[in-house]
């Protein structure tokens, strides 16, 4: 009898050791519909000396085999913008706020239908993430952001050990085009030097900031190809914004000023979407920000285990944007890609083709510069018997567009984006006609 009791106690201890941290379990949010999956949220300390902690919101997969599905980390760019707005409550996550900001509605295209997904606010001072060290405020770099994120992942897997062996992927958008390759490189180095490995299998990035030498000129080409700027202005910019003499600099400034005036009346994030600065009526749904008032409610912050409440949550922290390393902003990611290709990671780059901030033409330009080996030439991919976008498969990576989407494809084209993401996770080419 004692032997059986002892065995049961041992099994109970093992089960507890392999169970998620219950202190961060979200019991339910104000105005939340019922769901069949667990969610966790809170701030995980990554540096006790600095009092630095990163906020996460984790959704287990809405799937009967959730425990065996991959684990995905979702990151948003800015730098300094929250992954809660673009992730947990916008496009990739299971919820969105209702128009009044009083509650939540289900997202039928949530990525947690396919994976277990963590939405992380990084770097520190983004959203609910924080640091207590004042000198940290001017130390925003790619490497610092990646190393803090790596520390978070190690702590997360300590709190949620049942996911240590699951396939792990990173996904994100915009300036995460810097965060993600840098983080992937650091994870590879960590795995080479430590037994406590992270089971990294690949990453996917949408409309990624990658190389200023390609991103900027590609955006001008994009404006011209969409007939937003004139032939004369296009030639003026091409001619004078590539020179350094005084006359060229002056003419470049004049051309840039005219371009900014022309795009002032459209959304740079999706040229076919309503421009929020021109709309003010109560029915302008595309321009309503119901996330900010919802996340600034004390009962919501309490449900998400936000410490030192109330915290003023904001979509993007302008101080991070102002103080982010200029050298890192201008640093090309292409050498990192060349390095990461050797690791055998699954790499997908996708692009909403109506974005002006990081245009499809910009992305195609730097991909061309990598001189990759084409495996499957350019073709239209099939989403419910319509063209979801176009794609080309290389031996090193896959590139795909999302037709009609802007800077945030999961928000603009949620069905197409989920289909693309599922094919990425499964390592399958997008379907053709």
TrEMBL record:
Q: Which residues form the signal peptide?
A: 1-19
Q: Does the keyword tRNA-binding apply?
A: no
Task: List the molecular function annotations (GO) for this entry.
Answer: serine-type carboxypeptidase activity
Q: InterPro entries of this UniProt entry?
A: AB_hydrolase_fold (IPR029058), Peptidase_S10 (IPR001563)
Alphabetic keyword roster:
Carboxypeptidase, Disulfide bond, Glycoprotein, Hydrolase, Protease, Signal
Q: Name one GO biological process term.
A: proteolysis
SUPFAM superfamilies, per database record: alpha/beta-Hydrolases (SSF53474)
Q: Which PANTHER family match?
A: CARBOXYPEPTIDASE (PTHR11802:SF489), SERINE PROTEASE FAMILY S10 SERINE CARBOXYPEPTIDASE (PTHR11802)
Family in the record: Belongs to the peptidase S10 family.
Q: What protein is this chain from?
A: Serine carboxypeptidase-like enzyme
Taxonomy of origin reads:
Eukaryota, Viridiplantae, Streptophyta, Embryophyta, Tracheophyta
């Amino acid at each position: 009898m004692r032997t059986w009791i002892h065995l049961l106690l041992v099994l109970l201890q093992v089960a507890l050791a392999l169970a998620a941290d219950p202190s961060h379990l979200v019991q339910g949010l104000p105005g939340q519909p019922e769901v069949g999956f667990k969610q966790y949220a809170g701030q995980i300390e990554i540096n006790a000396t600095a009092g630095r902690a990163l906020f996460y919101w984790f959704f287990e997969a809405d799937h009967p085999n959730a425990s065996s599905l991959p684990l995905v980390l979702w990151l948003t760019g800015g730098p300094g913008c929250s992954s809660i707005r673009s992730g947990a409550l916008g496009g990739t996550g299971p919820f969105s706020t209702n128009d009044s900001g009083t509650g939540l509605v289900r997202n039928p295209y949530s990525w947690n239908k396919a994976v277990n997904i963590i939405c992380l606010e990084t770097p520190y001072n983004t959203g609910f993430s924080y640091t207590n060290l004042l000198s940290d405020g001017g130390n925003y770099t790619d490497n610092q952001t990646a190393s803090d994120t790596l520390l978070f992942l190690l702590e997360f897997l300590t709190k949620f050990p049942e996911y240590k062996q699951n396939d792990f992927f990173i996904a994100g958008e915009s300036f995460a085009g810097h965060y993600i390759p840098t983080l992937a490189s650091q994870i590879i180095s960590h795995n080479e030097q430590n037994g406590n490995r992270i089971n990294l299998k690949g990453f996917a990035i949408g409309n990624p900031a990658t190389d200023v030498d390609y991103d900027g000129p590609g955006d001008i080409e994009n404006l011209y190809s969409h007939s937003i700027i004139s032939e004369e202005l296009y030639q003026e910019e091409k001619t004078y914004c590539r020179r350094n003499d005084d006359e060229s600099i002056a003419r470049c400034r004049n051309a840039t000023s005219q371009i900014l005036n022309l795009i002032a009346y459209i959304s740079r994030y999706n040229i076919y979407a309503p421009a929020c600065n021109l709309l003010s009526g109560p029915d302008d749904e595309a321009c309503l920000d119901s996330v900010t008032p919802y996340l600034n409610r004390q009962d919501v912050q309490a449900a998400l285990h936000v410490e030192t409440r109330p915290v003023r949550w904001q979509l993007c922290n302008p101080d991070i944007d102002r103080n982010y390393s200029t050298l890192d902003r201008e640093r090309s990611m292409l050498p990192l890609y060349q390095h990461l290709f050797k690791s055998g990671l699954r790499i997908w780059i996708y692009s909403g083709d109506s974005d002006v901030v990081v245009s499809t033409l910009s992305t195609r330009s730097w991909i061309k510069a990598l001189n990759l080996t084409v495996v499957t030439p350019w073709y239209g991919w099939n989403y419910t018997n319509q063209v979801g976008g176009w794609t080309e498969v290389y031996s090193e990576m896959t590139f795909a567009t999302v037709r009609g989407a802007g800077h945030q494809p999961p928000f603009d084209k949620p069905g197409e984006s989920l289909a693309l993401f599922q094919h990425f996770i499964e390592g399958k080419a997008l379907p053709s006609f």
